[in-house]
């Protein structure tokens, strides 16, 4: 099951709440929501504030979830979201997507429904037995599918201890502990060099700072999946132009294989991924 955006309000929700809410507010009830495992993220208009707990309770009962959160923002270096608990309280869940089990705390760990295509794509591009280094692993968002579906070997680096806990649990839940090795360190301190067939750079805003480290982890010829956020006015040259410039400084040639938009990040700014083949000169 994917992190779902549901388009139509369930008739049962409307039926129950139309008896309890002032008539004018019923049409403001959320028609879209995101479900991650058995936790619901519900965007709620300010007009519904006085009724928020009862609304959340009805959505929880009808949709069969244990906890309802109100949507907030993702911020900071660790990309943690901000949520208000409206119903229930337990925000730890297991979300199943594309045959991969992700254990996470929805209130504290980012899991973006908009990134689903990229998670599925990573399962498709991986090769059995290749060594992947996931520099910004999170809970294994991008690299678990590579191990689960393709038998890729993965070194998954995640610096945040709380997120790391779920990375480890997800590895065991998917029974890929023989393929995936998690490291709870800052990737800048990862000691091995010249080892990876493929490097994942699933990070935004400051990803360019990590290009030299990614090159040192990569074999003399390797593929790097380079994510970054890019102002629209700099596209389509960016972000590849910056990547190639830094790669050349460090003695590598870079060839763009593919470029995809993941999602809108902010007004006029896009989250983009470029697949780059690098060669040591
Ligand atoms: C935005 S999440 C992305 C998860 C996944 N790569 C994806 O694209 O869906 C980025 C993760 O990188 C971790 N992180 C940030 N800087 C890091 C660093 N220098 N070394 C290791 N992990 C880092 C954060 O804690 C966070 O869990």
Could you characterize what this model shows?
The protein has helices spanning 11-18, 23-26, 52-63, 116-125, 144-150, 161-173, 211-217, 240-249, and strands spanning 4-5, 34-36, 39-42, 67-70, 74-75, 80-81, 84-87, 92-97, 100-105, 131-134, 153-157, 180-183, 196-201, 218-231, 252-266, 269-280. The protein has 281 residues and is α/β, with parallel strands linked by helices. It has two domains: 4-90, GMP Synthetase, Chain A, domain 3, CATH 3.30.300.110; 111-280, Vaccinia Virus protein VP39 (Rossmann fold, 3-Layer(aba) Sandwich). α1 packs antiparallel against α3 (52-63). The longest helix is centred in the middle third of the chain and has 13 residues, at 161-173. Residues 77-79, 110, 115, 136, 138, 141-142, 157-160, 163, 186-188, 202-203 line the site of S-adenosylmethionine (SAM).
């Amino acid at each position: 099951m994917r992190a779902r955006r549901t388009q139509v309000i369930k008739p049962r929700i409307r039926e129950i709440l139309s008896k309890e809410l002032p008539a004018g507010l019923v049409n403001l009830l959320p028609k879209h929501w995101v479900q991650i495992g058995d936790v619901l993220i519900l965007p709620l208009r300010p007009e519904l504030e006085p009724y928020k707990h009862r609304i959340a309770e009805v959505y929880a009962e009808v949709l069969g979830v244990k906890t309802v959160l109100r949507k907030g923002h993702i911020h900071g270096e660790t990309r943690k979201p901000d949520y208000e608990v409206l119903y229930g309280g337990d925000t730890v869940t297991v979300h199943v997507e594309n045959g991969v089990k992700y254990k996470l705390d929805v209130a504290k760990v980012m899991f973006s429904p908009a990134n689903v295509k990229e998670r599925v794509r990573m399962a498709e591009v991986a090769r059995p037995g290749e060594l992947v280094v996931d520099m910004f692993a999170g809970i294994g968002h991008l690299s678990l599918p590579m191990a689960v579906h393709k038998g890729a070997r993965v070194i998954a680096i995640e610096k945040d201890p709380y997120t790391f806990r779920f990375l480890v649990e997800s590895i065991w839940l998917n029974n890929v502990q023989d393929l995936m090795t998690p490291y709870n360190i800052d990737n800048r301190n990862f000691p091995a060099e010249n080892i990876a067939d493929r490097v994942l750079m699933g990070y935004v805003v400051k990803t360019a700072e990590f290009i030299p480290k990614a090159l040192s982890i990569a074999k003399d010829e390797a593929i790097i999946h380079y994510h970054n956020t890019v102002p629209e006015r700099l596209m389509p040259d960016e972000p590849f132009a910056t990547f190639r410039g830094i790669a050349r400084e460090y003695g590598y040639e870079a060839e763009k294989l593919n470029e995809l938009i993941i999602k809108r990040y902010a007004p006029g700014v896009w989250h983009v991924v470029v697949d780059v083949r690098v060669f040591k000169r």
